[in-house]
What does this fold into?
Amino acid sequence: MPWLDYSISGLVIGSIYALMAIGLALIFGVANLINFAHGAVFTVGSYIGWTCLVALHLPLGVSIVLVALGTGIVGALIEWLAIRPLNRQSRIAPLLSTIGVGLILDQVIHIVFSPTPRALSANIPNWRIQVGNGTIGPIDITIALTAILSAGLLYLFLYKTKLGMAVRATAQDDDAAKQMGVNINRVNMTVFGIAGALGGIAGLLVGLYFNSIDPNASFQMMLKGMVAIVIGGMANVPGAIGGGLILGLIESYGIGLFGASYRNLFAFAVLLIMLLFRPNGLFARKGERHAEPMTGTFVSQSKPVRIPKQLILALVVVALLLPMANQPYITQIMTNAYLYGLAALALTLVSGTVGLVSIGHAALLALGAYASALATTKGLPVGLGLIFGGLFAGIVGTVLAYPAFRLRGHYVAIGTLALGEIVALVILNWTPVTNGALGVFAIPPLELFGVPLYGTNQSYWFVLGLLLVFCGLQVRLLNSHLGRTWRAIREDTVAAETYGISSNYYKGLAFGFAGFTAGIAGAVTAHQWSFINYDSFNLQFSVLILTMVLLGGMGNVSGAVLGAIVIAALPEFFRAVAEYRMLFYGAALIILIRFRPQGLLGSG
It folds into this structure.
């Protein structure tokens, strides 16, 4: 087996991961922020490179410089427009804002260049040099030299310029740097610009290495950079380089042993292992600052809007009577909105009431959907399949998430995101059980113990009934001693544990109930669609649910339902501009975080 080839390949792709990781490490070190828009900047860089090399036929060297300038400007604009206005808000607010920025940039690329991948090549000779049992080509040398040159220029900037010294001082102690006259805003914009330039160069190099660029690659590459900085150390730039190279080698050797379909699974498995056993990274320096807990920062403090019971009852009556209007299209839209409402209820409990920043929420729906679909296609009645899907998602989801309960700060968000990806990748690769990429088809239609529910009106009333039942259960829980305990953990975990509260136990209870709710939603969705695959409940689905919860108000049951109806239903009435839907979601997320972080109905 050509292990030298795998080693060379691993080091080459690891160099690209290192460029991604350096940018993320710089931003985290200076702004204490995970930039979820970094992957989108990577994609912007790949398309600027395509424009330069293919459309304008510019030399490779000139194209690299233009890519760095273009994405550097994009990075600086992200800091100026989406991050700086949030300096006085909770520390989680900028993280959520970068998610919105990433959605917008990705959608702009789709609109301008189309969702179809494009071929990318440069005028590079096609010779190969034999080295042992492996070979090295000009593209390998080009990528390695570009990565080394970029790292060298960054070193000169950080250690040989006055602004670079200001960046290092801010990363070490931003308060002290501010007192010494350092312009923090200028430093932050510079760091975002440098990170953007490095991410854009990485986008161009990946396109050259694989001879194509894909507008859907941003999320995966952002995660690879994130894995690299977790391996090397969150704010450790040299560690980020080492982490990128290590990740590249792990992936390359894993492909050699098990095949290419396991590439991403290895990355996320390494991420979870690092988060659990060495969250500060392999190259963490002694005394390096640890991530601080985000206790009490996820929910903006506000007085929730109290909706009169009479108004709630009137709205329920209107909802029950809606099918009588004989508008099946509207009825179907509202059915989908109620299903989203169930998913939003689960997330608002975990993230709003308990304070766990979950970004992989769609995994719970996937667990419920697959459990019910597989069981019912084997002969289990659909009614029992729905219950089984909910229980499976609640139990398995809690077991998978339990290790993340001990994490703090940004690590919780990263951990839950990794869990969501691992679930999707296991579904993709466990072909004997899940049917792999082909998915599960011919799922039995919705029915309850012999009563068919697949008609438009019957399905609507059934889903509405589920939503009302789970709303009632969650309100009851939140008004109980258990709900008060959850909020105590959210506000200050350390103080709660000082009073004898076992935080992990109560987090597990919350995750179990949320998993059961989300599992039911996923199972019903599977029976309505009659087909699901590993990509049915992806990151965009998780972000969509998060936007609904933020719109209504974190921890607010009524807000979760309102957010689901607004976000899920309103775009359906504007299907003529459906291609701009993700732009709408991203902009809504940014506007909410900026102007109404407590949501329309306030935080619960």
In short: Confidence is low (pLDDT under 50) at residues 289-299. Residues 3-31 form the longest helix (29 residues).
